[in-house]
Amino acid sequence: MSDWVTVCSVAELPPGTHHVVDVDGAQVAVFNLEGRYYAIENVCTHDGGILTGGPIEGDQIVCPRHGARFCIKTGEALTPPAFESTATFPVRIENGEIQVRDERWD
Ligand code: FES
To answer: Of the candidates 3, 37, 38, 32, which has an alpha carbon nearest to the alpha carbon of residue 15?
Structure first.
């Protein structure tokens, strides 16, 4: 089982913000969308672009390289040129801290 990795405190991630953390070598972007937390791999499945830095519109993030849209809640690729989902990760709150875990290889 992989360990939970602390992202930041709840106070440091207010609604409408995000934070990127390294989890066992994977870049994970954690978002606060209206008080709920979601974590996706910060990598576009089209050509490996970093997703953060692109615009966030509702529950979607737009890849800054070629404009593919991903659902932050599900990781689903919503528009070309990306067709494969990006990974999602479980998020939990522990003692006021936001934590994520990469359980893909467990
Ligand atoms: S790398 Fe994201 S759309 Fe091309």
So the answer is: 32
